[in-house]
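Input for the complex:
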Amino acid sequence: MVSISNLHFSYGRKTVFNGLNLSLQGGYIYGLLGRNGTGKSTLLRNMAGLLFPQQGSININGFNPSKRKPDFLKHIFLVPEEFYLPDIKVEQLLANQAAFYPLFNYSHFEKYIREFGISMGNRLQQMSYGQKKKVLISFCLASNTSLMLMDEPTNGLDIVSKSQFRKVIAGALDESKCIIISTHQVKDLENLIDRVTVIDEGKILFDQTVDYITQRLSFKISDDPDEVQQSFYSESSLRGHAIVTANLEGGEGRLDLELLYKAIVTNHLLVQSVFKA
Amino acid sequence: MNQSFNLRRWFLLVREHGSRNGKRYWLSLLAIGGIMVGFYSFFILAGQNAIPLNIQSASYFFGLFFSGCLFGSMLFDDLNNTPKAISALLLPASHLEKLLCRLFFGIVVFFISYTLIYYLVNIPMVNLSNNLGAGWHKLGREANLPFKRSGIENVFSNRQEMQPLPFPFKLNPYLFEAFFVAQSAFILGSVYFRKFSFIKTAICLFALFFLLFIYFGVVLSKMTPDGCWYDSLTSWHINQNNITGHVLLPGWADRIFYFLIGYPFAFIFLTVTYFRLKEKEI
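Predicted:
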């Protein structure tokens, strides 16, 4: 569905991507993780056709995004971190924009909106940032586009809304869709994503499925000094040391996305070695 | 479905644009009407006379140029605001459809609405000035002379009496032409400049006029016999070695000349706007 090959991109003299390669398939929710300013949003904008690669190519469903052709645009939806919604009612938004998306499902939109606790008759400009974001996320999911790009979608959502977000996203996924969620708030994506992609300094630092990660890595609390010493990453907590180690026992454990992310950022070569073995 | 232009998609775009910006457009038109009422009221009270045709014509064209260019410079304003630009550029329609939709509102709808607002204000205000002026006239020194009532200006006509020039020069078609060229330049400026597009475009246009002035007034004058332009840029008054006379190009050449320095520029500006829109990155 998405094939990025040898992507080079820079803002003036500041290089963001220097030969980035990435391939994404339908039926998965991808978590695009990384520190602030590492190029997550830039990557999403390149994929949406809002920024053009200086070298390399991006192919999405057979389209070159930078052409921004209508047939490409009607199968992609971006929920940006900073977004704009006009000063109209929710129902008017539907009447104006839903027709542009051939697979838009009105009943799904109403279902998502209801789940988020928003009324169709509300004016968008009278809503809070979080409520507006929920409307946009609902619209994105109901548009049934094959590629959904979400840039920090949980920013501005309260704790209850974050779990609602996870629920509606998980319910909206099917084989034909690919959802890419970019965030630095890794906890918000726990139990939601199928694949973890960590981006750092313009390169893909780590890219594995959650199933494979839990087969290869173990996330646990340990008081054993040797185990802590040999771990890929450790941090002290009230209950002992939270550590990331190789999964030597076999079987799939629970993924702690925050610990994984910290382990990759601080010690990615060691973590990668487990996956190469 | 056609990737460049599809009528159904364009209608959807027009509906979406109208719904999103309708309130702003209505308020802008009301503001224009309000300014016209204010100006005419001031004129009636200060002049204590009927509003003459040339003042009606001048206010129409001044308002058209100022508000039309200001409106043109705001036509793609949203592309300079990242969240709005993302929303506009990712809406599933082609660049051509997006451009034509904005031009429909910026040029066609604006021009018709402005002219309607102008006459909605102009007709009652001229009638009011006639009635008030007649009353003041009776009390004035020239009460024995008949009061000259003012008619309603037809901005599309070419009556010589309302022309400011002393020769039969059909000014209005050229003013409309100049307006559409200027507005197209401001529309291009709204895509081209990220900030202060109105001011920056105005500066660029003044620079262009200055270059044209230098070209016609200095460069071409050096290449021609002593004399000066007369009436138009297609006639030259010779005054050299006690010989005086006129060199005139045929009338058709005059018309073609003025057409070529007008509408083609508008087309060029709008074509460049299309390519700038295609290249726009956020």
